[in-house]
Write a structure and sequence with these properties.
The complex is a heterodimer. Chain A is α+β, with helices and mostly antiparallel strands. Chain A contains four helices and twelve strands, in the order ββαββαβββββαβαββ. In chain A, strands 1, 2, 5, 6, 9 and 10 form a six-stranded mixed sheet that branches. Chain A has a two-stranded antiparallel sheet with strand order 3-4. Chain A has a two-stranded antiparallel sheet with strand order 7-8. In chain A, 37% of the residues are buried. In chain B, strands 1, 4, 5, 6, 7 and 8 form a six-stranded antiparallel sheet that branches. Chain B has a two-stranded antiparallel sheet with strand order 2-3. Chain B is globular and about 55 Å long. The two termini of chain B are 33 Å apart. The chains are: A alpha+beta, B alpha+beta. At the A-B interface, β3, β6, α3 and β10 of A face α4, β4 and α5 of B.
Chain lengths: 205, 343
């Protein structure tokens, strides 16, 4: 098992989960959000439809090979911001025929995360480092109106964050990957979060 | 790695006077950055403006001659009405005489390959799923077969993004103005009144990033324009400039927005980019907001933001030689500032 530490920053983030009641962002990304971002930098484009969305068959193969698990730390300056926009679809993703729809969005604002990613072996780690240095597709923090930058951590970052992440990061177990035909990837587990000196475990889907 | 690492960065600045560049649709309030009083414009609103520029540029392309209305899918315009996917699909189908029941919008329009299309519910192409659905599940209920969408595409990955969304480089002054409503019709004794907030002055700046690989993937099956990435980027640069010069919005609350400068260059992704609007903001923290209500105050010799701006843009690998810029556009009032930025 090898570890890659990354820093993820964005002006806005939209981390939705099934429990987030529409466009209400969680404070930190779930493991499946991180999985999506890694897929983007590696160039694993989605190629299949399924009942509840889309997925990349190439990325599913990579996940089974790399066996990643994630720990996430974030700073305590994080806050939410109301960012409502005009839209074109209803909450089920259907195109509406009536008036242009307004979408209520509450996004996380000025986010700065420290991601600690555990991977199966050194070869996979090296491949991922190269991809993060020159990402194939751009990285977004949850949705396309939230551009993000994903960078390798430097020494300064490590010094800043060393006091924020304490103890051993909790690795995640791959819980359910396409167990039923046509089902989307879910990566279940517990995200390890630090908020100042307070430590919380938040279940994420 | 087999893909190109190349990116194009576009630094774009415009000035807005006595207008409302973008407001929250629910609260009708300006999008003010907490703490700094900078006014922001959402990336969606900015892209809407650029779509207007793309629509204008389609009139100069022989490939779209007579079919300009089908050149942009998400255009908010007085002629086309509000942007709606269903209407656009019909318009594209009609203009290009498409006989297939399913087609891909990104192969016909100019904005879809650049800005992407997000659509989540789109039927299924998973054969194993179709087999699973043909069997009756244990609950006894028959599952519904997914309906194929008219647009056959998977969502299109966005190739262009506002890495930092447009924001004023200074704390902005907003004033509420009272207005009388129009009094029309019989039986109305008096006109009502309302309050409208306007931005007195705003010098906006944004940084856009074009991912060459994503763009080349999006345009490789384009049926109207050729697959020359360079031409597409030049088209985008022209559209941004046109949207704030010759083809500005006719809306009374948005018309007073004028381009100041645009710098575009090719480079690779950077390690640690800096938002120039935040960087420049530090220069203007001290003067009172009333003082920063005109452009001349902002770009005065005392404040001289050029070197700082130049430093911020260098984090995006801005070239050190003038000849390596893809595009340099400026109006006369911003020329002194540009002269201090450029190498």
């Amino acid at each position: 098992m090898v570890t890659l530490n990354l820093r993820l920053r964005a002006q806005f983030a939209n981390w939705q989960t099934p429990a987030s009641a529409g466009m209400f962002s969680q404070l930190a990304p779930s493991p499946s959000h991180v999985a999506g971002m890694l897929g983007a930098v590696l160039g694993h484009k989605y190629d299949k439809h399924c009942t509840d969305g889309i997925y990349s068959s190439r990325h599913l193969e990579w996940i089974q090979k790399a066996q990643p698990s994630v720990a996430i730390g974030y700073n305590d300056t994080i806050q939410r911001i109301s960012w409502n926009v005009n839209g074109d679809k209803d909450d089920k993703g259907k195109v509406t025929k009536g008036e242009t729809l307004r979408i209520v969005q509450v996004l996380a604002h000025n986010v700065d995360y420290y991601l600690s990613i555990h991977l199966a072996n050194q070869g996979i780690l090296n491949e991922l480092i190269e991809a993060v240095k020159s990402p194939c597709y751009s990285v977004y923090a949850g949705s396309t109106n939230c551009p993000a930058t994903l960078t390798l951590t430097n020494e300064q970052d490590a010094k800043t964050w060393v006091n924020r992440i304490t103890g051993t990061p909790t690795g995640l177990k791959l819980y359910k990957i396409n167990t039923n035909p046509g089902q989307r990837l879910f990566w279940d587990g517990y995200t390890y979060l630090t908020l100042g000196t307070q430590r919380e475990y938040i279940p994420c889907l | 790695m087999s893909y190109t690492r190349k990116k194009t960065y576009i630094a774009f600045a415009w000035a807005a006077t006595q207008c409302a560049p973008n407001k929250d649709p629910y609260t009708s309030a300006f999008r003010i950055a907490p703490g700094s009083e900078q006014v922001r414009v959402s990336a969606e609103a900015f892209k809407q403006a650029v779509r207007r520029g793309l629509f204008a540029s389609s009139h100069t392309m022989p490939e779209y001659a007579g079919r300009e209305l089908a050149s942009v899918y998400g255009l908010k315009d007085a002629i086309l009405g509000k942007p709606r996917m269903t209407e656009t699909l019909d318009r594209v189908k009609h203009n290009f005489e498409i006989k297939d029941s399913q087609f891909d919008l990104k192969d016909y329009t100019t904005d879809a390959p650049l800005f992407g299309i997000v659509q989540t519910k789109n039927g299924s192409d998973d054969t194993s799923e179709a087999e699973a659905e043909s069997q009756t599940p244990a609950s006894g209920k028959k599952t519904k077969k997914p309906k194929p969408s008219n647009n056959a595409s998977l969502p299109t990955v966005s190739a262009v993004r506002n890495l930092y969304i447009p924001a004023t480089v200074h704390p902005a002054l907003i004033t509420a103005y009272g207005r009388n409503n129009q009094m029309t019709g019989e039986g109305k004794e008096a006109a009502g009144s309302n309050i409208t907030e306007l931005l007195e002055f705003g010098y906006f700046m944004t940084i856009m990033e074009v991912n060459h690989y994503a763009l080349s993937e999006n345009i490789k099956t384009h049926k109207v324009l050729d697959q020359d990435t360079s031409r597409w980027i030049d088209m985008l640069i022209g559209a941004i400039w046109a949207a704030y010069t010759t083809d500005r919005s006719p809306s009374a609350s948005q018309a007073n927005q004028f381009a100041r400068f645009l710098l575009a260059w090719d480079g690779e992704s950077t390690e640690d980019p800096v938002d120039p609007a935040t960087y420049l903001y530090k220069l203007f923290e001290q003067p009172s907001m009333d003082a920063i209500s005109t452009e001349s105050t902002l770009i005065s010799a005392e404040t001289a933001p050029g070197p700082s701006l130049s430093k911020a843009l260098r984090t995006f690998n801005m070239p050190t030689d003038k000849t390596n810029f893809r595009a340099i556009k400026t109006v006369s009032s911003a020329k002194p500032l540009i002269d201090t930025i450029l190498p």
